[in-house]
Structure formats: structure tokens, C-alpha cells
Amino acid sequence: MTTFSPPINPSRDGTSVGPKVRVNRVDFGDGYNLRAPDGLNYIKREGQLVFRGLTSAQLSTLNTFCETTVAGYLPFEYTLPWESSSRKFTCKEWQVQVIGPDVYGFTMTIEEVFDL
Hints:
The protein is mainly beta. The chain has a domain at about 1-15 and about 50-110. The chain is about 10% helix and about 50% strand. It has one helix spanning about 55-70; strands spanning about 1-5, 15-20, 25, 35, 45-55, 75-80, 85-100, 105-110. The chain starts with a strand and ends with a strand.
């Protein structure tokens, strides 16, 4: 499995990755309900990694990783900047922003996966 090592760290402004929790819920009479986790891996991380101030070479590295290496569906390992261990993610969407002459931004939408 590929490990994602970006050329620079994600920007602090704009980068947002958080939990998405899947819960089964059954409603009974008089407002009573019962909730239970939906499966073994019911909490997964998803969000956006935002990179700003990239050179064209750094942009090319990120774009090639998304288009060729993981191709929108293959999982990769990545350690979020605020965590100490890696997780597996996929990236189905990414965007390039032109900020100025030879200055670019890049946004990746990532979703945690639990493949074997």
C-alpha cells in the first residue's frame, strides 16, 4: 500500500478532517428510542486537506499522486498532522487553485476506509 508523503504540510486554514458516525436508531412510542453503532468500524474520518503556496513541481507531485498512484479509488496510508499513527484513506475528488504566478493551491477530499 502506498504511503502519502505530501511535499508540504496541509495548511492550518481550510484543512478539516473529522469523524462521521454511523448509528442505527429505532423509535418506539412516547419519544423512547434505542441507538446502537452500525457495524464494527462505525466511526470514520472524512474531510479536506488543503495545501497552499505550492510551486508547479509540488502541485505536479500532488496531482500525479491523486490521478495515477491512487487513481481515485485505491487506498493509501496517511498520518494526519495532529495524530501519531497512520490511517487508510481514499481520495475521490481533488481540485487545483491558481493563486498567482507559479503559486498554486490543491484540495483533496479524503475518506477513511477499513479495507484489508
